[in-house]
Amino acid sequence: MKRVWWKEAVVYQIYPRSFMDSNGDGVGDLRGIISKLDYLKELGIDAVWLSPCYKSPNDDNGYDISDYRDIMDEFGTLDDFKELLSGMHERGIKLVMDLVVNHSSDEHKWFIESRSSKDNPKRDYYIWRDGKDGKAPNNWTSCFGGSAWEYDKETDQYYLHLFTKKQPDLNWENETLRKEVYDMMKYWFDMGIDGFRMDVVSMYSKVPGLPDGKVYGSETDCAIGAEHFTNGPRIHEFMKEINKEVLSKYKDVMTVGEASGVTIEEAKKYANSDGSELSMVFHFEHMGVDAGEGGKWDIKKWKLTDLKKILSKWETELEGKAWNSIYLSNHDQPRMVSRFGSEKFREESSKMLFTMLLTMQGTPYIYQGEEIGMTNVHFPSIDDYRDVEVKNMWKEYVGNRGYKPEDFMKAVHYIARDNNRTPIQWDDSENAGFTTGTPWIGVNPNYKEINVKNALADKNSIFYYVKELIKLRHENPIAVYGDFKEYMEDSESLYVYERNFEGKTMLVILNFTGEEQNFELSEKFKDMNSKLYISNYDNTDKFENNTLRPYEAIVYIYE
Ligand code: GLC
Ligand code: CA
Asked: Any catalytic annotation for residue 106?
């Protein structure tokens, strides 16, 4: 397997709006990030994925871009950006930007022109169609609910928006548009960035003719038509073109495609080891373990066997063929400890989850705040939430479908994206040290206990455990390149796997429950020479009595 930096890297995601505010307006910004670069260096991460910081009217917090070549006013200036980039490079940290080109903002100059008349040269940069019998051109629905089409009186046609109506889809069939995108990518690479995370990359290519989608539940469900707009017919052609026109012209850059609906077979193409498309993709399969029949907002209890089956499958089936990525949360998901661990055993279970994250083969991604074990927020009212998705869903479920507000709030407290968007808790001062003004979204009230200052002052904190795991991953290629073999597949309590590389074996034992569990090493391991790699409890005597403590994680290396 070819060794490259982005396979060995640990990536840290920054959501700028919520990271650090430098000027008291309540919104995180680039100078805020600059002020915390030494903190990132201390943690030891290799690269930062920065969520969008381009000009945007912020209908979807920067995922609606009105100028791809400039910085959002609230976040700072292009000079601030350049300073941030060099500040990272000086500390040996790479910068991966977010590339949002499935759609732009409706306030982008391309769209303003496109919408102005049917024969405008930019008309075809977006997807315009005539209505059908006075209704939308097809039955596709937006990923945030409601029709994916918006009628525009000006020219008596509809435009497609797979997200909000302020996020019109770009038309990837148009070659001139594609060229504009490639030029823009080069603009940032020429400035010195190290890669792109590609937003909803699997939706660029739509099936010609835009046929109606299959209706499973109700006509108002999200993403009806997905089979016609995910991993569409020309998607790999587009990826290869991006690779040829842009990526191949720069040395050692990385790309990670956000690919909802991607299967293993598809991922083998996107992230093929031959380097013809992207470096890797984010798949979504494990993010669906707790979705009921009604989808994301219909929450069911997840089962460890389901989670393991998915993660193990991706580890083994991509092995040697394509590169994987590992994540348990990001700005679109809730806090990992609240979802996959336990708030009651916050320290132990956070450490256990990090042990898993950093001992699997794919590139691990850490979302900001996870390194101090931040938790979901339980805001009392829907008015405390800011995200366009949760607001739309509230209207849909409570408004249209008659859900009881308190029932829907349960789902919000569990799965809403704002759980992960509350400000980073830097210390125990007002607003958790995030801002001297009024934060754009409330701070989690548990900041007096859970904050960076406390974490840095405690040698046993989650922070230092993660730091150690990162260091170990850098020193032990087995953690990156080892193969993967699972034990005890049927256990609903333990996740046990081994990795093998250059004659060594790494054994990872994870207790996913808040109870003690029996565990006995098989004879094979008893006979081998072992060295403790890491453990989230102080002493491992108990394990020698064949007992694992709540959320205990132990990793051994055998030679
Ligand atoms: C991606 C982003 C998400 C955004 C959506 C539309 O899924 O991660 O935050 O809302 O795309 O751009
Ligand atoms: Ca600010």
From this structure: no
Give the C-alpha separation, 185 to 544, whole Å. 54
Q: Report the C-alpha gap between 83 and 80 in whole angstroms.
A: 5
266 catalytic? Reply is: no
Counting atoms of ligand 1 from 1, which one is nearest the CA of 389? 10
Pocket test for ligand 1, best of 60, 296, 331 (most atoms within 8 A of CB): 60
Looking at 466, 493, 526, the residue that finishes a domain is 466
Q: Rounding to the nearest 10 degrees, give the CA dihedral for residues 40, 44, 47, 48.
A: -20
Residue 95 shares a structural domain with residue 181: yes
To test the pocket of ligand 1, the residue of 15, 50, 53, 163 to mutate (highest count of ligand atoms within 8 Å of its CB) is 163
**Where does the pLDDT of residue 541 fall: very low under 50, low under 70, confident under 90, or very high at 90 and above?**
low
Confirm whether 1 is domain-assigned.
Answer: no
Of 533, 499, 250, nearest to 362 by C-alpha is 499
The CA distance from 463 to 372, in Å, is 5
Pair (209, 226) in one structural domain: yes
Q: Ligand 1: which residues within 6 Å by Cβ?
A: 60, 63, 100, 163, 199-200, 258, 331-332
**Residues with C-beta atoms within 5 A of ion ligand 2:** 21, 23, 25, 27, 29
Domain edge (last residue) among 440, 466, 492: 466
What total of structural domains would you count in the chain?
3
Residues 353 and 264 grouped into a single domain: yes
In a domain, 304, yes or no: yes
pLDDT tens-digit readout, 359-389: 999 999 999 999 999 999 999 999 999 999 9
> Which among 60, 199, 371, 389 is annotated as catalytic?
199
Q: Are residues 151 and 201 in the same domain?
A: no
- Give the CATH number, domain containing residue 134: 3.90.400.10
Inform me whether the pLDDT recorded for 126 exceeds 80. Answer: yes
- The b/e string for 29-52 (b: 16+ C-beta within 10 A; e otherwise) is bbbbbbebbebbeebbbbbbbbbb
pLDDT tens-digit series, residues 150-200: 999 999 999 999 999 999 999 999 999 999 999 999 999 999 999 999 999
Asked whether 142 and 148 are in contact (CB, 8 A), the reply is yes
CATH number at residue 533: 2.60.40.1180
- Which of the following is catalytic: 258, 266, 290, 371? 258
Give the range of the structural domain holding residue 152, as residue numbers without chain letter: 109-160
